[in-house]
From TrEMBL:
It comes from Aminobacter ciceronei. SUPFAM superfamilies: S-adenosyl-L-methionine-dependent methyltransferases (SSF53335). It comes from the Bacteria. It holds the Pfam family Methyltransf_25. This is S-adenosylmethionine-diacylgycerolhomoserine-N-methyltransferase. Residues 51-136 form the Methyltransferase domain. InterPro entries: CFA/CMAS, Methyltransf_25, SAM-dependent_MTases_sf.
Amino acid sequence: MSTPELSAGHSGLMDSVYRHQRHIYDLTRKYYLLGRDRMISELAPPKGGTVLELGCGTGRNLILAARRFPDAHFYGLDISAEMLVTARASIARAGLSDRISLAQGDATSFDAASLFGRAGFDRIFVSYSLSMIPGWERSVSAALAASTGSVHVVDFGQQEGLPGWFRKLLRRWLAKFHVAPRETLASDIAAQARVAGKSCRFTSLYRGYAWLIVVGGAKPI
């Protein structure tokens, strides 16, 4: 199956999953999408800088980031048209439509120039999206290619410090939403960072419930 076919199929799946959930998404996800606010606080874009979120969903993270860093311009990409309807409405209510631009696209293969009129971004972040994206490794590659600064990722870890029963229950529940924690998330990002000649910093949060990864700099570690 070709990439366009995969994109169309995944777009339809995400629209069906979130057609109704998007209305309560932010209210429910705040209890278990842990580490998002810490990641946002560490973005620190330069004055007048540009920030892209891959898999922006309802726009919650973009609004928070735009308020925290008022001198930057923000961009959001999502494959779900349904989620973008909610995102645009939320951004308009927040009075941030002039600083946040949105587009529908595939995080595994996107053309920033055609979507946003930009070749690259000072910061790119991905919050709990790689665990939902088929071929998520290509999203990492695309982010690194479009980054002129750093790439920030937070997603489900392997719950390595938590009881086995918790891990089983969590994964069973996440599967209902087509979410699968990526066992090789940290190692794959680190490997891609080395190839790109960039540093990679890994932090395990909440006993491995979530992983926070930052790629940026000149020398790999």
